[in-house]
Amino acid sequence: xxxxxxxxxxxxxxxxxxxxxxxxxxxxxxxxxxxxxxxxxxxxxxxxxxxxxxxxxxxxxxxxxxxxxxxxxxxxxxxxxxxxxxxxxxxxxxxxxxxxxxxxxxxxxxxxxxxxxxxxxxxxxxxxxxxxxxxxxxxxxxxxxxxxxxxxxxxxxxxxxxxxxxxxxxxxxxxxxxxxxxxxxxxxxxxxxxxxxxxxxxxxxxxxxxxxxxxxxxxxxxxxxxxxxxxxxxxxxxxxxxxxxxxxxxxxxxxxxxxxxxxxxxxxxxxxxxxxxxxxxxxxxxxxxxxxxxxxxxxxx
Length: 301
Hints:
Helix content: 25-40%
Shape: globular
CATH topology of the largest domain: D-amino Acid Aminotransferase, Chain A, domain 1
Number of helices: 9
Number of strands: 16
Number of domains: 3
CATH class of the largest domain: Alpha Beta
Radius of gyration: 20 Å
Strand order of the largest sheet: 14-13-12-15-16
Distance between the termini: 32 Å
CATH architecture of the largest domain: 2-Layer Sandwich
Structural class: alpha+beta
Strand content: 25-35%
């Protein structure tokens, strides 16, 4: 097979592992910087060009599109789909999962466990918004934030009002969520491939930090998940329409709640914590499913 990996940095751990796994299986792999691509949007003969070359003959494309380039990255991926190249994750599913508000609304529609979440536009709605999610302490999130950036824990009502008003004053879109204290600064990352959780790890925030992101100094350990957690992760992936993703769960007093569904999950933490060849599993899934024109735009919303 001829596989394109859309990644801005070929030296990233996840990109390198996918290249190694594909080459070990005898595939031809090309790492393509999505921002260097440009497109010919022509009826019946769409093209993607890269560094002066017309990209042709690919059987599959694996998107590793960073959150900051979602708009352009999904446009390029959509062009590959129009060329009947099999996408590991479809462009519409990536866009769906990257819009945090839209993702939560879709998960809510399917009845999945979620933290109580509020969304508002006007500063004079702040008092009722805080009451809606159960009062302080509460978590305030920028819609555009990633890797824990733009996430604030407000421990008092006064602090919550100040932070919310500050964000709104900057015209930033925010979510206000209940704080799941019983999670103890830890979450569970479930790696879903197809309709199966293939690996899971517990991510624990460093001392005094409620965010568990490994990029912020958190640690990762192997964990055994419950059947309910496994089912929740698979249903969340299916709701987003993603073939491969990381589903982040918190253990709350009322069962597992979904925090986020990540369409380009990092492989370093979970391969290190579990000892599993996740990259090999992803390439194996691609081998089984890469058929021309198989894009289905699964899911709704």
